[in-house]
Each structure stands twice: as C-alpha cells, then as structure tokens.
Amino acid sequence: MADDKSIAQAYWKANLRLIAGCLVVWALSSYGFGILLRPWLSGIQVGGADLGFWFAQQGSILTFIALIFFYAWKMNQLDKRFGVNEE
Hints:
Layout: H1 2-36, H2 38-41, E1 45-46, E2 49-50, H3 51-82
Antiparallel strand pairs: 1-2
Helix pairs in contact: 1-3
C-alpha cells in the first residue's frame, strides 16, 4: 500500500513539473515576448511585422497549440513510465 502511494506521489510530482514548465513557456511567449520584451524584438521582422507584434497576435496562439500537443505526448510517456497508460 505504501509503495502505491509513493508511486502516485511521484507521478503527481512529475505531472505538476510538466504543467509548470508548460505554463512558464506559455507565459513567456504571450506576456513576455508580446508585451514585456516587445521593444527589444522590434528590430526582427517576421512576415512584414516585428517579432514582438507577431508574438502578440499569432505567436502566442501557435505556441499554445504546440504546447497542447507537447503536453499530450509527454503525458503519454509519463503514463507508460508509471504504468497507468490506456491500452
């Protein structure tokens, strides 16, 4: 019983670490690049607009979509590692 509890705690800790990492990337992409770092990114052109504007308009959305697929992929690996995968 104690072994199951320790495995569940390790699984939950790994899950929270993955979620925190994804949230940091998302916040950096949307808030950081789109708002805070926009003056420094203004010299880099992407599709006729500066990089800061691009992140504010499209980059953060595309980053969020990529994070959804990344999270699903990593959770499948995590599930297999802890033996709780769906098969």
